[in-house]
Amino acid sequence: MNRRIITIDCHYIQPAIAAAFLVHEEGEAYFVEANTFHAVPRLLKALDGEGIARENVRWIAVTHVHLDHAGGAFALLEACPGAMIVAHPRAARHLIDPEKLVTSAKKVYGEKVFVELYGDIRPVPEGRVHILEDGEEIPFHGSKLRCIHTRGHANHHFCLVDPVLEGIFTGDSFGLAYPRLQRNGLFIFPSTSPTDFDPKAAMETLDVIINSRSRRAFLTHFGELRDLSRARCQLNELLKISEKLYDEAVAGKEEFDPLRNRFEAELRTNFEKLASRAGLTLTSEDWEMLATDLRLNADGIAFAGIKARPAVDV
Question: pTM above the 0.90 mark?
Fold first, then answer.
């Protein structure tokens, strides 16, 4: 097989947290994920290191527009004059006009931390965005890359299947498997972060990815995964717990802050149980690394549950 894939550590927050991927064959290339403005020099260094001319990059696929996946899209596109961005229909408009994304992120992080995390974010020219419909195929070096819309983590998420690699780029729809947590085998968990978490859709997406018949999954967080069946079992277990918490949020009356605090504690307990069964003892350093994910996952479940509560007649 002449097609080659490079996993690029984007050093987002710390090493081995977020990746982008470079795929190339006989001088033609595509990227999956653009990470942030700060990471673009790393992506271009990988391209140069493989001896690929920048004008020979055909596609830049961003699985969804969360900023650790798409924040660097405009800068990478500028550096690759022959490329097109490929995106979900719901994501494309935010790439073309990122003002709402930027404003929302700045409210969450504050201006200083936003700049430290994401740097500069500017609009992508509309004429250089190709909107991918579900099941659509795009050409690459004599083969077809297939798009699959995958809800659950986000409503604007898609996965990309490369049949030559026998692989699927899963973004955040098939879990997070940080390398430092794979000390005794697989330990993987879902991302249920705000604002579009849907537990049933997330579990359905696991089946969609398995049914793609891919032998390898390429996770943005982080790298290649080969035991897809085992990963599906772990992810499904934690998604069922997330669904239970979501249902509690829908049926209850708790406000957001106490709800997400309770959910965070329950998720931590269940992470620990799953890790223990996988033969992994989570250290204080592991918990420090997982702190953001636990909080974001609890936020997403609580937010989605409250949003789904029936309207109250007044």
Answer: yes
